[in-house]
Structures
1.
Amino acid sequence: MDLKYIDRSPLIDSTEPESSDVADDHAIESGNIAASSPHRLRSRIEGNGLQEAQPNRFLRGEQWMMNYQEAAIYLEEGVNNEKFDTHPKSHKALPAYLIAHHPFFHVMDLFASLLLLSLAIIERPAVQSIHVPIIVHATVELLGIFILTLDLIFKARWQGIKTFFQHKRSLLKCILLLVMVCEAITVIVRQANHFRVTRALRPLFLLDTHYCRGIRRFCRQLLQSLPPILELLFLLLFVMLLFSILGFYLFSSNENCVYFLTLQKSFISLFVLLTTANYPDVMMPSYATSNFSAIFFIVYIAIELYFFMNLFLAVVYNTFTTLEKSKVKKLLIHKRNACEHAFRLLVSKKHPEAIALRHFVGLMHFYMPRAKKEDVYLIFKSLNTSATGCLSLEEFFNVYSLAGLNWKEAMMSDLWFHKLPSPFRKLMTGINWLVTLKWFEYFIYCVITGNFIVILYEAIDASIILSKEVENGTEHITSPIVVSWHSIMFTAIYILEALLKILGLGPKAYFTDGWNLFDLIVTLVSVAGLVENIYHDTFFYFIILRPFRLIRIFKARRRYRDVLGTLFILADRLWSLVVTLVLLFYFYGIIGMECFSHLELLNCCQNSTAIAPYYANSTGYYYLNNFDDIFKSGVTLFELLVVNNWFIIMEGYAIMATEYSRIYFMTFYLITMVVMTVVVAFILEAFMFKIEYRHQTNENSSIDYLIQPQSLSLSEVHMINNVKPHLWSGEFIRQQTPCSTDLSFVGKKKRGKIELSQQMYKDEIEEWLKEGRGETTSHNTELVQLSPPDIVLSTPSLSRISSVASGLSDDVPCIIDREDDVALINHSSEII
């Protein structure tokens, strides 16, 4: 039996007549939005011309609607890890809050940030093939700044000026925008670019966007781990300085050794030696004079490289594992606090310690506006493990885990062709049986392995033929790229496999599986390379990507599954790391363009016999490592990241510009060293997490998905389809007993790293919650001791609400019994 889907009309309607069962269902607590909107309620009541008892019902419905909306905002703040001190404090702040959190506004904010970043392509020094008038890129910059300024205006409107400027990130953003507006106007007036290092700070705008909150959290975690890292880095540099002094006294008298002539050169040489880029070149002049000098270099490398650098990794790993557990703990407590805030707005006098079904539906109307009616009911029923028909606070704490479930009827066939006519259904059933057969998978593995052997044999044979032609001085060398019959055969098998799986599994099942998508991409690329090679030889090398499908074989063994599982766990965080590196490259690239773009390195450094050949046109190509535009800067910085011969690039700019330019390259190395050490720590932490999770949980349990079974009686199905959601009752949940006519459903969603972490740390979570409750208790103790002026922040608004209520009827829903308690709770919310 299929359930009806919800239409786009509201789940709840405050103007509908309420049933007698809920006529006395008054809200216990009013939120900031409802408490600050008495004039809005009065105007709406008068505007609708309501008579006698109708104002009571209308006021009660309006209050519930505003409580639902504010409770949904609390839940969103919990999942987004937003501080509650930025929560809308009045109804006037709500429009600005909703605009600033609208998806369209998030997209515009992201667009403006990317627009400012992309200006580096057309600003001086611009890419050679792109020449744009100064007035154009300056105007585009002002447009991007204007959009970002709108975001700040809406934030200040809903947060309040005081809270807004207490937020460090918003204050920094204001200052940067003000400086950049002045610079853009200066560029327009002068019609010429000037020295603008502030362009390097544009990545901060991207980090502040909604879609980069994961990257922002990663950067925050990186900054939080800096204190122990900086301490160890200081120790490493201090030992390096000691060895620099010792090396200066030992080797400065050697005329053949140019690396220790001065203390400055001694320190720089040992700094480069830490990266092993100049080893053993730096040692050989001294070693030629005395063999005992090797002891100095061996001891230095052993201490600095093998001890301190490995200790550096250990410190980073320990710091990050500690911060990771702390992040899980804080996010868990933050989400529970958000649930508590929302819970207080959803309980009523009829159910003072639990949330009724109708109020949960009202919450979902704002929190999950696109959810289907049956999904909302199934979520509620799954949360209500006590089967009381109302949600307790402990049950409501699980709303984040179950709210994102994708529900489907369990008895419904997963096969896409179950509704097709009989002949086609039988054919598709046979194809499904074939593609799900293990032997079919083994056959494909054999085909892939055979294809790899053939390609390897062809490559070896072509290499031998090519080497013979070169030795014989053949004028026209035979191209190793040929289209053979077996290349066409293997490609045809891969195409047939993809078609059979799409028909047998169904398009949705096929295209949502990562391995199938990987196979399809490799197959399509192979086909493109094969077709292109028939006419040209340009894309034939794509065909050799087919053996990459051998990666699928590795998932058969447990150890390889752990490696691949680590990769999947790291996917989101590695993306954050990659973006962070790109933004770091952008930062240093802009600075490099401003400082070094005017330098010509071709045939430079003639006075330096050591590096001059690298910059000669005939013997070296290091002059191409320049900062002429943003893309060339990125290539140069990547070469520095790889480390090999990076000091040659540094010395070239030190000779052509100034010796102080070494600071630029050395700080870049230190920062990237920290970031790349974080990469290693990430991989270690994710791999250890995967192993520990497998040991602490059932190996056969699904690690990737959360699966929640549930059932509905026919009475519940009838209520969902025929009763308006705001009149639903939890009576069927209390009375339901298992029956053969019940419909079975399964909710499924992909687990995130936080959910997996909470499962692994479940033995420690209870202790975390005790600590969280202790902090909350201390907050409440401080509130009780506040002086009267400190606890009456919300009293004027509540008094106006009370006056409106008294003017209408004595039967208007009571917001709370004591105004002082409301002020106390509201003030407690602000502090938390």
Note: The chain has 33 helices and five strands.
2.
Amino acid sequence: MAEAVVQFVVEKLANLMANELKHLGGVGGKVQMMQKELIRIQSCLKDADTKHKGDARVQNWLNELRDVAYRIEDATDTFLVEVEDRRVKHLNKINKMFHKTIKVKTLHKLGTDLDNIQNELDRISKSRDDYGIVAVQDIVGEETILPFRRETYQEVDDTDVVGMETDKKNILQLMLPEKTPRRAVITIVGPGGLGKTTLAHIVYRSAKEKFEYHIMLSISQQYSLIDLVTKMLLKLGKSIPENQGLGDLISTLKSFLNDRRYLIVLDDVWKEDLWIQLKDILPDVNNGSRVLMTSRNLDVAKSTDSQIPPYELYFLDSKKSLDLLLKKALPNQKPDKECPSNLLELANQLSKKCKGLPLALIVLGGVLLKKRGDYLEWERVLRTFDWNSDCKSCMDVLAMSYQDMPYYLKACFMYLAFFPEDYEISATDLIRMWIAEGFIPCKETTTKEEMAERYLDELFERSMIQVSRRSTYGLIKSFTVHDLLRDLAIHEARQQNFLTVFAQASDVNQPNREIRRASLQYHVQPQQKNPQFMEYLGSNTRSLLLFGLGYFTVTQMPKFSNFRLLKVLHLVDVNNDGGDHLAKEFEKLIHLKYLRFRRCHINSSSFSVHRMKTLETLDFRKTKIENPNLSWTSSTLRHVRCDQYNLELANSTVDLRNLQTLKWVSIRRSLDTKLILLNNLRKLGVCVYEDWAGMTNLLGKMPSLVSLAIKRCKFSMDIPMEIVYPKALPNYQNLRSLYLHGPWVERPETATTNASLFPPRLIKLTLCWCDFRQNPMPELGKLKNLKKLSLQHVMEIHSKVSAICSKGFPVLQYLEVHDSRLGDLVVEKGVMPMLTYLQIYPSVKLQLPPELQHVTVQES
């Protein structure tokens, strides 16, 4: 990790020299000298990293180097903060001379700090010879990044699993309703990493069609019954009124499941109490309902169903272990038959070291995959593999996978420790945090967001994350981290003083040094005015994520003015009961780059981000903010997201040339589009009250736009056809996603009958509250790239039957028809050959051809 920290600081010093040279004066030479020394030390870090294991002296040398790098980062960041502070406070001519005096003092302090750090750096550099650490010339080479994957992700099926065929068959037999009419509980038990979750998923996919309702939930160690019951109801499609207590929720769940055959999968159960609480909630009416659980604890399994013994998983034998390893390491070759004999022998030895643990085999296979069948690289992996059979766990394999990462991925992986156990992490949120932290380099031909997507994709390829959902474009949308891998991230982050996790109240006793990044993941009691973890936060804290399971009040929040270097602030469940106090505290975070609220209520007469001159992301979805005040002239702002439509596009100069996302924003008055610069905008969500002409002109000035959502907010107005008709907006051809809410006027007379009504490259299309005067399906079927189509509250006026054309929708995978009056939908032969999922409202009658009878159909 020292390698990653040093590289990060080298890049920061280079940026400092490039952007702030005029402010550095005579200190610039010291910065340059320090940068050169760090580059020299970099060439030794790979050798040191391979020698530190088992050598306490080398490990100490790396720790000292890392701490010095942190000191450099702190000194330079503090200097930049003070320069900006003085610039803001002393802009008028009267204070100009005073500002110069302050600048001299600031430079003198920076110079003194750098002198002290340089002396320490020189000592560390000279001491490397004492430890036998030599330079490795390839340390600063080209970054190796997996090709950017934009293909649609294919779900892992049974053929990707090794050694579970018999287990699957046995459990499916227990799941048969005819075998045991009573509600039965089957529990899969075994150590972590043995494949319990994988087996549960396989069984669930195979058995769910036999049950009227089926859901699968992951249970964290710190679960609460009210959260669990709430999740069950939501997964079952039930809406939950506000302010319902546990008793009401339980009654709703029991009433809904009563007389219905259900399958509920509870994955990773830690405590016996869970089933004690659930057994009287889940109905048992002798209709063949089933509960499938997985647990690491045999006592949990024994406490569930006295008539069905725990189903224990066992380690894979040597042949199955080898098959699984080779399947992951050489995915395009058949195990044993196509694997070269020299690699096969190494694979045999490597698979034996994993001792039949599937997770270890999968992770090790991910390491070997990166070696691309190179014998010497495989042999090096075997040689450096250091397990003590009775004393080491799977963490050794996981740590090995971590050590094999390039420096730029290590910080990104440790950052995953920020999120609670079993948390479904938003790829978008994480990527924007990485960018705010400075982990993502700037490339001429690639945006930072695209580069970060490559990093995330590489973590997936290395089997370090588990993808939950992918977008219509095939990109990772959300993912989870296996418990063992999350433990590894927490361990490494703590060892490197990179990040500190407060997962429970007792964790507040762990820190012994100032915290650079902190994540609070446990419930803070309402009466606790000053949570103890805040004592460890200081002026060098860079990032703060608060995942309160209850509500933080303003009296429990830290004083943000103390965090001068804070870049990332992510708040969940914050209830501001102090009027403008919290909003004023936010205004002091002038160097913040990422500000995210979720389920918060900022009760303030004015919330402003005008002073946040470096802000890149402002996201307050699912949050109520009174009178948000956004700076419409910012060179740094990249993403603005909110759920409400109270963010109004200013009718004045708008210069957001680097903005990529703006969703949602209102247009309530006529716009002078000559004053608006949004030329890099890629995603726009807008609620239009009037001035459709101005809206059309504005869209014509967005050459980078790929996603557009438009909502008509004035019922007396229709959406003009120029908004969707591609010939009216030549630079609109590259649109990939379109959401239209509201009816539109007639199609222009200039349109030819063969031209598609919509932008031709659409991949995702959602139409809501739209009225068609004729069958829309022939037009929609012409969209050759359309993969997802959603029709919500759509009406066709003059037709009783909507016959889909015989050659339409060549790549459509997902079709949703919700509460729409389109008559009967008749899907003819040859239409929608790629369709895999269909969600349809009960009032719509559907006819599918024989070749689409396999499609999953869900009634809304």
Note: The first helix runs from residue 2 to 19.
